[in-house]
Amino acid sequence: MRETSCVNYDGLTNAGVRLGTSTLSIISGVAKTAKDVSDMVWVDVPTLITTNTGWDLEEFAQRMEGGSNVAEAKLDAFDEYIEEINSTVRRSRSLEDVTSFSDYAQWLGDLGSSQIPQLAAVAGTGGYGLALLASSAYGNKLNQLEKEMGVSQEAYEDLLKEYSALPEGSKEREAMEGELDRTKKQLENFTPLQMRGTAFMVGLGEYASEKITQGILKRSVPSPRLYSTLAKANKGDLSRGFRKGVKDFYNKKITKLGVLRGPLEEGASEVFAQGMENLADKYIMNKDISLTDGMNEAFWSGAAIGAGIKVAGGAMGLIMKPAIADRSAEINANLEKINSLSKDLDRLKGMEPTESIEKDIARIEGDL
Known about the structure:
The protein is an all-alpha fold. Helix content is about 80%, strand content about 0%.
């Protein structure tokens, strides 16, 4: 990896970098999932067949494993590239870093820029976006566990070398036996089944979490039909419509605390996703963690995103819905008139032309 230096760029530059690397991270996760599925089909299954039947597919499995190793090296290089880009800007703020309003603003900016690609995927592609994000979460978690396995393997080998070099029966050798045993047991947790099961639970949690986000988006953002209708209405009287919308929004939503629904739901969905990961890490990978680790950050991050969705969707609705409502009756009446005149015109053109009919055709064409 090339040497890079962290520069404290302005907020816009930091946000742009995080937006880009978050998008690349989603792509990387999906690619890792595709690679893992390919490994299961073309490497693991032929190996099992060779082991349990008389068919010899070992050579085929080895060839496919060689291709898989090449793909893994390329994905690792891609991850290093993402990390290299991230290293050129300020480290993302966490909730624990927030001690001032400036820190809070930076935390919100980092959070928003990192979540935009996910929100775009959910809003723009529906169910496909949910599957995409779940797939990415699976791949990235599996990759994280494989890296942890590599670190544990390296630590175990270093300890084993140090242990073997000590004299038999020495106190130092006896003292190291416990640490060596703990490291070996930790390494034994990284079986393919355990890692894939953990990654699957994380992907499932991500799917369920983003499904809730999709519902919040659908409720908060105006229907696309409003945009075309607004254009037909020549944008309406936006200033008057906006004031009316603000008043209605306040009366119907804020006074009934309906404005809190989105943030609370999104916060709860992020806590659920974090809880699924914690459960998998603790009971499948046997990690020494608490089930509540990361939940505080997850809730407030989700609540902030939910509030952002409500504000953005509400702003569009405040401007557009009242303006469209003022002109929708007129638009519908004009459309019905156009439809009726078009039918009359088609009927007249199908008749034998006379002076009277030609006048009627000219009049209708003029009206249209």
